[in-house]
Design a protein that fits this description.
Shape of chain A: globular
Largest interface: A-B, 16 and 18 residues
Order of helices and strands of chain B: EEEEEEEEEEE
Oligomer: heterodimer
Largest sheet of chain B: 7 strands, mixed
Strand content of chain A: over 45%
Radius of gyration of chain A: 13 Å
Helix content of chain A: under 10%
Number of helices of chain B: 0
Strand content of chain B: over 45%
Shape of chain B: globular
Number of strands of chain A: 9
Strand order of the largest sheet of chain A: 1-9-8-3-4
Structural class of chain A: mainly beta
Structural class of chain B: mainly beta
């Protein structure tokens, strides 16, 4: 499975958009990009996934660059309940790296 | 509501004792998975099942056993052979198997040794 690189932590003001980047320069042509998050002491929660086109669902948007070497997860209006560790994963096997600890502040 | 139910939320085990963790899903998913998560760490795959009456070992299967007699149920037994069982255990399911679908998780079971 390809590796991913994410910033260790980010802050976001409540109500503003949170943009979480992920680098996956060794991604293979048929590998999907998945995003999950984990709130402390809970199970991971699936957010969104995509192959090459941008995707949007009720939780977030996923922007994948044309060369597929990086992507950005966008939470359009972050709330305090979005505070969690966000994991970007390439391929289907859930190999969690460090992820990005997002803190949404009032 | 559709989802995955794990029970119990907290479990204590004595040395030398086997314990079984329950995982039930009503999502009509074919595939189910068991993971272990240690503090500050990522997930490690214990066992997975792509279809009823079939399952495969994951990366850390030693000391664990599973069964998949019904589509909706995938119990995990932590045997006395597992020397370091204290961890957060997570069950997941996906529509189809082999890691090519989003996985949906339960709330986990925390196992501790007395």
């Amino acid at each position: 499975d390809a590796k991913t690189t994410q910033p260790t932590s980010m802050d976001c003001a409540e109500g503003r958009a949170a943009n979480l980047p992920c680098n996956h320069s060794t991604i293979s042509g048929n590998e999907y990009v998945y995003w999950y998050r984990q709130i402390h002491s809970q199970g991971p929660q699936y957010i969104i996934h995509g192959l090459k086109n941008n995707e949007t669902n009720e939780m977030a948007s996923l922007i994948i660059t044309e060369d597929r070497k990086s992507s950005t997860l966008i939470l359009p209006h972050a709330t305090l309940r979005d505070t969690a560790v966000y994991y970007c994963i390439v391929g289907g096997k859930l190999i969690f790296g460090q992820g990005t600890e997002l803190s949404v502040k009032p | 509501d559709g989802g995955i139910t794990q029970s119990p939320k907290y479990l204590f085990r004595k040395e030398g004792q086997n314990v079984t963790l329950s995982c039930e899903q009503n999502l009509n998913h074919d595939a189910m998975y068991w993971y272990r998560q240690d503090p500050g760490q990522g997930l490690r795959l214990i066992y997975y099942s792509q279809i009823v009456n079939d399952f495969q070992k994951g990366d850390i299967a030693e000391g664990y056993s599973v069964s998949r007699e019904k589509k909706e149920s995938f119990p995990l037994t932590v045997t006395s052979a597992q020397k370091n069982p204290t961890a957060f255990y997570l069950c997941a399911s996906s529509m189809q198997g082999a890691f090519n679908q989003p996985q949906h998780f339960g709330d986990g079971t925390r196992l501790s040794i007395l």
